[in-house]
Amino acid sequence: MAKADTPHLILGITGASGIHAARLLAEKSPWPVDLVASRWGSRVAGTECGGLETIESHAQRVFMPDDLFAPLASGSVAAVGMVVLPCSAHTLAQIAAGLGDSLITRAAHCQLKEQRPLILCLRETPLTLIDLDNARRASAAGAVIMPMSPPFFMFAGADPKTVSMDDLLDAYVDRVFALLGQHPSRTWEDIR
Length: 192
Prior knowledge:
Elements: E1 8-13, H1 19-28, E2 33-37, H2 39-49, H3 53-57, E3 61-63, E4 79-87, H4 89-96, H5 103-113, E5 118-122, H6 129-140, E6 144-145, H7 165-179, H8 188-191
Parallel strand pairs: 1-2, 1-4, 2-3, 4-5, 5-6
């Protein structure tokens, strides 16, 4: 069990496709994970992988999405940063508008005001002009907008039939960790 003052990584799961990347992030995190899933995030997890149990088993703490008394709702609680994975266009819009009426959006607001990393792994396509404007506003406030687009260059020269979805998502998660200061085990230079 990590000490209370050990910074945790906050993982927010919202109602968009891409739950397997969240599972990999929770499994591979070098930091203790604080998990909060929105109601729709839980529903999508049920559809894509049968539920959140596997991800919850890798989390240090699990919080309810409406628990605004949770430690994550305070900027005074140490955090490595926050990753919203997957991030729906709806959640992006709430964060861009400065809304903090759920634990995910309140925790995101805390990361921005404390100038900690906030990575929004946007899982939406195509994007409307409204989505792009919300992404611009969130980015201007300090968030990193990281669409769920795997780094295909990591598999240059590989037979496409041998590259699995887990391989692609694993490389994507390593890029997320790099934004949090955790150097990836492989870079594009390793495959040249």
